[in-house]
Amino acid sequence: MYCIGIAGRSGSGKTRVATELAHLWPRAGVLATDAYYRDLSHLSAAERGAVNFDAPAALDWELLVADLARLRSGVPARVPRYDFATHTRMPEPAPLAPREVLIVEGLFALFDRRVRKMLDLAVFIDASEQECLRRRIERDVASRGRTEAFARAQWERHAAPMYQRHVFPTKAYADLLLDGTAPPAGSARSVADALARIAAGSAAR
């Protein structure tokens, strides 16, 4: 199995590129770190809305690392399903079988050293803050039950400062840097070409 990590600012296009990559490799799988947000069902709705979801502590790292290790060793994983409208986990996890290529995508895909050690290729995608904010508002309003005002406030309060503190520094770990405003299909092809070079190098040794 080859494992690719794709990180970047919220709204930079990580999911789009991961989706295009999955189309290139029929036997590829996608593991979204967003699925590993901690279950907040024990909190009130108001308390859930105040949580900083752009901080690394919002993720269940132990479960994410364990699931990734299972998949890398050829063992299926049961990936949590997260409801972003209510900030809770759904009752039944989603089964994910080991694949020839596994794409780990999310804000913090390159944040944890244990995850980075299991990656064959580290990718960082970036775009302007204005474009990323526009995309995030569009997504949050369309699929996460947010208002534009709430999305903008959350960006200023959490997303923007957490990007500078926790996400941007992981750019230093990337083997490949991509422009988030480029067509996703072309970016996916760049990732595929980079992985092909890694595979060729491994075969030659």
Account of the protein in words:
The protein is of the alpha/beta class and 205 residues long. It has one domain: Rossmann fold, CATH 3.40.50.300. Helix content is 43%, strand content 18%. The strands form three sheets. It has a five-stranded parallel β-sheet, with helices on both faces. A hairpin with a 4-residue loop joins β4 (82-83) and β5. α1 crosses α7 and α5 crosses α6 (148-167). The longest helix has 21 residues, at 184-204. It is globular, with a radius of gyration of 17 Å. The model has no long low-confidence stretch (mean pLDDT 92).
**Secondary structure tally, helices:** 7
Number of separate strands:
9
**CATH architecture classification name:** 3-Layer(aba) Sandwich
The fold-level CATH name is: Rossmann fold
Q: How many structural units, i.e. domains?
A: 1
Alpha carbon gyration radius: 17 Å
| CATH superfamily (homologous) name | P-loop containing nucleotide triphosphate hydrolases
Strand order of the largest sheet: 2-7-1-8-9
Secondary-structure-based class equals alpha/beta
Please summarize the sheet with the most strands: 5 strands, parallel
